[in-house]
Amino acid sequence: MTAVEHEEHHHEGSVWPAVIGVSTVILVAGLIILLKNVNFALGAGLVFVFIAVITAFVAKEVKSWPKVIESFFARLKGTAIPAEPEKVGGVGFPTAVFLFTEVALFAAGFSSYFVIRLSFPVWPPPGTPHLDDFIPRLQTFMLLFSSLAIEYAVYSVKRDRLGAVLGGVVATALFGLGFLVLKLGVEWPHLLFDVGFTPSTGIYASMFYILLGAHGAHVLGGVLALGVVAWRAKLRQFSSTSYGLLESVSIYWHFVHLVWLLLFAFIYEGALTWAAHV
């Protein structure tokens, strides 16, 4: 086993994923407080907590980054194939912790949204521009097909059909990119510049951009991860006994899809239901 491979198989337990996850929830709370003009000092303090945690993490972990980067690029070049198969057949502890922090993040976001929503007699508040759900419906179908594509990739790797694995992963990434193009290139410019629906329009607009922006960032992160998986699939670094990374990314992608379904139901369709009765 090479030095790079040895480093790759040696992982120390870390509390940082959980700490960063909790601090991200604190960040969301701080941003909501600032946007609602509830208490500037409190909101700014919560945002500062997140910045302090990230700063502490960088200061502690930066020394190990050169080795991590070396291992990462060695894999991409195909010069460091793991001597032991990647764990499959279940969610590993790092993946489980990461997903737990992500669930906590969006749970905090949705909880804040519902608390604010219940404080208004009608929702969205009167005067909120009407939101068309045509593009969000297209995005829903895109993520649906992307979930099918990543499942096809996992199905294929279990049968050592590596060409199909690459095709499934690339298709998933393309659907994800299409989702982002519709969001950032079509829907949001229309809302911001044509409709005048900006974060300062009201509390509904603020929550709209916070929740959908957070989800969009997760889609982007998923697309980048899919790019790494696709490259490794191209190098034929997966097999029926070694596909842990593919499995973890697929679970993350399904989580992103589930969050979108909740956003679509409550942010878009909830608003349209109210508008239909006004």
UniProtKB/TrEMBL annotation:
<dbReference type="Pfam" id="PF00510">
    <property type="entry name" value="COX3"/>
</dbReference>
<feature type="transmembrane region" description="Helical">
    <location>
        <begin position="96"/>
        <end position="116"/>
    </location>
</feature>
<dbReference type="GO" id="GO:0004129">
    <property type="term" value="F:cytochrome-c oxidase activity"/>
</dbReference>
<dbReference type="InterPro" id="IPR000298">
    <property type="entry name" value="Cyt_c_oxidase-like_su3"/>
</dbReference>
<feature type="domain" description="Heme-copper oxidase subunit III family profile">
    <location>
        <begin position="4"/>
        <end position="272"/>
    </location>
</feature>
<keyword id="KW-1133">Transmembrane helix</keyword>
<feature type="transmembrane region" description="Helical">
    <location>
        <begin position="202"/>
        <end position="231"/>
    </location>
</feature>
<keyword id="KW-0472">Membrane</keyword>
<feature type="transmembrane region" description="Helical">
    <location>
        <begin position="40"/>
        <end position="59"/>
    </location>
</feature>
<dbReference type="GO" id="GO:0019646">
    <property type="term" value="P:aerobic electron transport chain"/>
</dbReference>
<feature type="transmembrane region" description="Helical">
    <location>
        <begin position="251"/>
        <end position="268"/>
    </location>
</feature>
<feature type="transmembrane region" description="Helical">
    <location>
        <begin position="162"/>
        <end position="182"/>
    </location>
</feature>
<protein>
    <submittedName>
        <fullName>Cytochrome c oxidase subunit III</fullName>
    </submittedName>
</protein>
<dbReference type="GO" id="GO:0005886">
    <property type="term" value="C:plasma membrane"/>
</dbReference>
<feature type="transmembrane region" description="Helical">
    <location>
        <begin position="15"/>
        <end position="34"/>
    </location>
</feature>
<dbReference type="InterPro" id="IPR035973">
    <property type="entry name" value="Cyt_c_oxidase_su3-like_sf"/>
</dbReference>
<keyword id="KW-0812">Transmembrane</keyword>
<comment type="similarity">
    <text>Belongs to the cytochrome c oxidase subunit 3 family.</text>
</comment>
<dbReference type="InterPro" id="IPR013833">
    <property type="entry name" value="Cyt_c_oxidase_su3_a-hlx"/>
</dbReference>
<keyword id="KW-1003">Cell membrane</keyword>
<dbReference type="InterPro" id="IPR024791">
    <property type="entry name" value="Cyt_c/ubiquinol_Oxase_su3"/>
</dbReference>
<feature type="transmembrane region" description="Helical">
    <location>
        <begin position="136"/>
        <end position="155"/>
    </location>
</feature>
